[in-house]
Automatic annotation (TrEMBL):
This is Uncharacterized protein. It comes from Fonticella tunisiensis. The lineage of its organism: Bacteria, Bacillati, Bacillota, Clostridia, Eubacteriales.
Amino acid sequence: MKVVAKPIEMAAWFTRDGIPHPIKFRIVNEDESYTVIKIDKIICTHTEKLAGNCMYVFRCQSVVEGIERIFEIKYEISTCRWILFKI
């Protein structure tokens, strides 16, 4: 997987405890167009502390442009931002 660290727009649901569960996300391409990717399967979830910021890390699997891909997205708790970290 290659590190891209791009901000994304996410559709997700949250438990009563505030734990997010991603559904699909939208990313801006280089030509300013959008690509929507539906998350087919969440392989694993864990938390990590990166530079003092707590994050939820999701390793997911989806079909992107006809190819099954595994990627990693992160949710930064303090700023409520989603990042496509590796693909």
